[in-house]
Write a structure and sequence with these properties.
The chain folds into 2 domains: 46 residues; 312 residues, Beta-lactamase (3-Layer(aba) Sandwich), CATH 3.40.710.10. It is 36% helix and 17% strand. A hairpin with a 2-residue loop joins β10 and β11. The N and C termini lie far apart (79 Å). About 2% of the residues have low confidence.
């Protein structure tokens, strides 16, 4: 019996040594191999912004600052932040506001009404100066840039076929000629996308790939465009190729030129790249910025793309990107890389959302913008919290 136990332990040690060798080998190849990255770094997390190379996004004066609340307004708002009613197993549990934020791995939580910062809180080691990664919130920034490029005449129309800008797709499949920019923006292209927790899955390829331009044009077509909604990370990569080719500059630089400097961002941001050699932005997820600057992007959309009297994003694009509509797209709760809340009767709410509960949530009729950034998201129902806070603000005596 003891011999069998020793033999078993020996095999376990051999297996552990082999796994260690594989992991160390993968770690050594993270600069050149997406599969190696998936093996070494495993599931994506908020620290990935420090693992990938990145392109800086400069800001420029004058800086825009939201107006703080005065002492009287802070006192009036104090009841809003004392506790939260959390629905759990059919009943509502009251939890202290700050405790809830800490326990849900929240890093930043901001509430903005027009130009007034009603609440600004940082948790779990984060501060106002922290650079927080966007995950798929980045897609909504890509949407804004596409709208700006159309407004400038760099891109013709969302009805243009993707092959007008990426003609090499025709070499892969002639059916790509039937896929328009609208299909990519509304996640209805018919391009195959396989979501599996494997190092060679499409999720891993579009996140960890070291040459995302090549990845963008690599997937086959599995169905007709415009018929089925399927969240697909090939789409922002293809739109990134369009932006890069029509603007003649990296996407991060176009963002810097068109929005970052014009919004008076508080700090420089960055956009994670696939690799130093390729230098292509991770357009599906890799924007990094301070929470206060994400709030400025939300405020821009609250104002229908207008900022300080200047139309930065065409108003028609903002409206089309965020409306509840299934007449031209298969999903009424998703338009041009923005989610639309459809469970709020009589209200028009829309939001940019990313993994781990990253969110910019806009309530136009209440003039409110919420920003929640987190390390993880064990809660998963942030619109309920936003609605609860908005209702409390509405109920306060004037």
């Amino acid at each position: 019996m003891r011999r069998a136990i020793r033999r078993g332990l020996g095999w376990l040690l051999v297996l552990a040594a082999l796994l260690a060798v594989v992991w160390l080998g993968a770690f050594a190849l993270t600069g050149r191999s997406g599969i190696a990255r998936a093996l070494a770094w495993m599931d994506s997390d908020v620290d990935d912004q420090h693992r990938f190379p990145a392109r800086p996004i400069a800001t420029a004066p004058p800086r825009f600052d939201f107006r703080p609340t005065d002492a009287a307004e802070r006192e009036r708002l104090a009841p809003v932040w004392r506790d939260l009613g959390i629905e759990a197993r059919g009943r509502t549990v009251t939890r202290p506001f700050d405790d809830f934020m800490r326990q849900t791995d929240t890093l930043a939580f901001l509430v903005l009404r027009d130009d007034v910062l009603l609440y600004e809180g940082y948790y779990n080691g984060a501060t106002r100066e922290s650079s927080l990664t966007s995950f798929s919130v980045a897609k909504s920034f890509v949407s804004a840039l596409v709208g700006i490029a159309i407004g400038e005449g760099r891109i013709g129309s969302i009805e243009d076929p993707i092959t007008r800008y990426v003609p090499e797709l025709l070499e892969r499949d002639a059916r790509y000629a039937g896929i328009t920019l609208r299909h990519l923006l509304s996640m209805a292209s018919g391009i195959r996308y396989v979501e599996r927790s494997l190092p060679w899955s499409d999720d891993a390829r579009t996140y960890y790939g070291t040459d995302l331009r090549a990845v963008a044009v690599s997937s086959p077509i599995e169905g007709p465009p415009g018929k089925t909604f399927h969240y697909n990370n090939f789409h922002p990569l293809l739109l990134g190729l369009v932006l890069e080719r029509t603007t003649g500059m990296p996407v991060a630089r176009y963002l810097e030129q068109q929005l970052w400097t014009r919004l008076g961002m508080e700090a420089a941001g960055s956009w994670s790249l696939d690799s130093e050699a390729s230098g292509f932005e991770k357009l599906e997820s890799g924007l990094n910025a301070r929470a206060i600057d994400y709030a400025k992007f939300g405020r821009l959309y609250l104002e229908q793309g207008r900022w300080q009297g200047v139309q930065l994003v065409p108003a028609g694009w903002v409206e089309a990107s965020t409306r509840r509509d299934a007449t031209t797209d298969p999903a009424e709760n998703y338009q041009y890389l923005w989610w639309v809340a459809i469970r709020v009767p009589g209200r028009h709410h829309f939001f940019a959302a990313g993994k781990h509960g990253q969110c910019i949530y806009v309530m136009p009729e209440r003039r409110l913008v919420f920003v929640r950034m987190g390390r993880t998201d064990s809660f998963g129902r942030w619109p309920q919290i936003f609605e609860q806070i908005a209702t409390r603000i509405d109920a306060l005596p004037r």
